[in-house]
Amino acid sequence: MNQEEQKRFIAEKLNEGLSLGQVQKCLSEEHGINITYLDLRLIASELEVDWQKLEEAKPSSKKAEDTLVQPEPEEAPPPSGTQVTISKVARPDAAMSGSVQFASGAKAEWFVDHMGRLGLAPETGSSKPTEQDIKEFQEELQRQLKH
To answer: Which member of 16, 40, 58, 91 lies 3.0 to 4.6 Å from 97 by CB, making a disulfide possible if both were Cys?
Structure first.
């Protein structure tokens, strides 16, 4: 496979809903191409992949190797009303990312950059989260990351 064929294969598999780890495994098993996870992430960041679609099309059965951090099964919403999700595939510019719906109704995408800094990108048209929203978000994110 030349580089263009590899890129098409990677984009196709990602758009089918496979995780980067699964794509890496397919490349190795089906084509004998061994590529590091970091190299695969860099290639994937340049491809036209609907990352939001991948997040929405999460398979119902997850394997531990597919992701480092798995969200806790949804038993009941947190008492605060803040709902935090952790994305299976992090944004290309982040070590980890996800979304949050605050108790006040505000919505945002969150991310942790490669320096360990937490950031929020409010959804277009959404209200600004309150100080209490931010506090509850941080507590809920910490709770989920401990599991």
So the answer is: 91
